[in-house]
Amino acid sequence: MGALVQGARVLVPGEGLVETNVRIEDGNIAEVGGDAGPGDRLVDARGLLLLPGIVDLHGDAFERQIMPRPGVHFPMQVAFADTDRQLISNGITTAYHAVTFSWEPGLRGRDTVIAILDGLEEARPRLLADSRFHLRFELYNLDVADEVADWMQRGRVDLLAFNEHMAPILRKADRGEPLGTYTGRTGLSEEDFLALVRSLDARTDEVAPTVKRLAELARTHNIPMASHDDRTPDERQHFNALGCGIAEFPLTLEAAEESRKLGNTAIFGAPNVLRGGSHMKDGGIRAADEVRAGRCSALVSDYYYPALPQAPFILAEAGDAPLEQAWDLVSRNPAKAAGLDDRGEILPGKRADFLLVAPPDGGRATVKATFCAGKPVLVSDWI
């Protein structure tokens, strides 16, 4: 016994939006275009769009549930439960929680990261979205490399990204600019923070072999990898050679173009699309332009989950991409980049992760229902 979703306009690969039925059985899509089987539950979805569930490769908005104000912490289980509700209400059926493991103490330090990882694993059986661990390893966090290697060998890391924030910190310090952004989240004085930065900078020669070792281990265990904030084509080539097929938020057009040439997945923020541009002070890259140029392969929530279900409609309305291509940016493409071949498209045999959406009518799109592995985890009063 399964369910038949009737009358929706379904986003069918290669065909676009087609008014048809979708039959679900045992958590998977059994048939597209068929009729109900004996005992099937019928779901009337006329007037709605049936779209693949969103796969979010990089979301860190959960940090606000853990520490909504500096120094104010809440229990991990409460934070993850609340985050889970935000995910499903925005049609995000697979979420990679991006956790920075930094040499900094505080929110991104070792104690917090371990608490998040342990908390996620404890909460996972109760969560509705498929919630995964995206480890953002700061390159100068050299003393924890063995621990990270152990996590990968034990299957605790679902995506590994290499971050490098030391250089911009050093540039600010050398120019005498205030470092309040960093000291505020670490709890260190500026003097102590700078002393820590200088001590790590002296160990630069250790960075490359550490990264190489972790990348080799990730490849051995089939863990997808990303690099963060590539500035130059050379940087992208370097990380691509290590096996990092994902370029997170390239900072220049040249780096984004190199990612396209290499066949990598370049991801940009859906909030960038929703806001009409980057939140960065220097203006940054406009994600919609990258979509139009064919350099953006996927969109992620970054710091704001509600942007993901809205961004494809904004792109389609602006003529930056047809809706089918725009929706691939939040479903099929990120699933493929993460090696999740069982989801991201409305096809027989795929996992029944999808959402029912009331299309925009002079405003925002509205997620009416979210299904994870065939289970209705968010249902509004129409069903």
Question: How many β strands by DSSP?
Answer: 16
Structural class: alpha/beta
Radius of gyration: 21 Å
Number of helices: 15
The CATH architecture of the largest domain is Alpha-Beta Barrel
In what range is the share of β-strand residues? 15-25%
CATH topology of the largest domain: TIM Barrel
Instruction: State the end-to-end CA separation.
Output: 19 Å
Give the helix proportion (percent range).
Answer: 25-40%
Described by strand count, sense and barrel closure, the largest sheet is: 8 strands, mixed
Unreliable spans: none
Rough outline: globular
**What is the average of the pLDDT values?**
93
- CATH evolutionary superfamily of the largest domain: Metal-dependent hydrolases
Into how many domains do the coordinates divide? 2
The first-level CATH class name of the largest domain = Alpha Beta
Structure overview:
The chain is of the alpha/beta class. The protein folds into two domains: 1-52 and 345-383, Urease, subunit C, domain 1; 53-344, Alpha-Beta Barrel (TIM Barrel). Helices cover 37% and strands 25% of the residues. It contains 15 helices and 16 strands. Strands 1, 2, 3, 4, 5, 14, 15 and 16 form an eight-stranded mixed β-sheet that branches. It has an eight-stranded parallel β-sheet with strand order 6-7-8-9-10-11-12-13. Helix 9 (233-242) runs parallel beside helix 10 (253-262). The radius of gyration is 21 Å and the shape is globular. The mean pLDDT is 93.
Task: Write the topology of this structure.
Layout lengths: L2 E10 L3 E10 L2 E5 L8 E4 L4 E4 L1 E6 L3 H4 L9 H14 L2 E10 L8 H14 L6 E9 L6 H9 L5 E5 L2 H9 L5 H7 L3 H12 L5 H14 L4 E4 L4 H10 L3 E3 L4 H10 L2 E5 H6 L11 H7 L4 E3 L6 H12 L4 H6 L3 H6 L16 E5 L7 E7 L2 E5 L4
Parallel strand pairs: 1-4, 1-5, 6-7, 7-8, 8-9, 9-10, 10-11, 11-12, 12-13
Antiparallel strand pairs: 1-2, 2-3, 5-14, 14-15, 15-16
